[in-house]
Amino acid sequence: MKIALTQAKPVSPAAKPDPALRKAAEAFEAVMLRQMMASMRQAKLGNDIFGSSATDNFREMSDAKLADQMAGLRQFGIADMIERQLTKAVPGQATQPAPAATGTKGGALAAASADNKGAIR
Questions:
Q1: Which among 71, 61, 2, 91 is positioned nearest to 31, based on CA atoms?
Q2: 57: closest CA among 71, 69, 41, 43?
Q3: Tens of pLDDT along 25-79?
Q4: How many CA atoms lie within 13 Å of 57's alpha carbon, on the beta-carbon side?
Q5: Residue 37 region, left (φ>0) first, then alpha (ψ -120 to 50), else beta?
Q6: Which of 68, 106, 118, 93 shows the shortest CA–CA distance to 16?
Q7: d(Cα 59, Cα 51) in Å, to the nearest integer?
């Protein structure tokens, strides 16, 4: 049996990829890879001879760094899929950060209620 690996298609260059969206998609891919690596680490087959909480902390930091580097290579295709999906969802519209929530008087909650003009009662 022969298995062929294909690389995920990058976002088309005509779409002018947003650098913030690209960075966020890579960060999400890194989170997914960290979770996958953490699950793999939980499947221990025996007791660790040199195991300690310091070793566990070091492994977690090492796994996080490795996941960030792996996501930067964009070999898994998760970031590309997210970027492609979000580019399709909002065509031609620049992504802008939502205003920060500042309690009950302002921020995203106030902006959302102003946009709804009292639709939610």
A1: 71
A2: 41
A3: 999 999 999 999 999 888 877 777 777 888 888 989 999 999 999 999 888 999 9
A4: 3
A5: alpha
A6: 93
A7: 11
N-to-C CA span, the chain: 61
One-letter identity of residue 101: A
CA distance 62 to 14: 37
DSSP 7-20: PPPPPPGGG---HH
Q: Please report where in the chains the tokens 């302002």 appear, as a residue.
A: 106
Contact 93, 32 (CB under 8 A): no
d(CA 27, CA 21): 10
Phi, psi of 119 (to 5 degrees): -65, -30
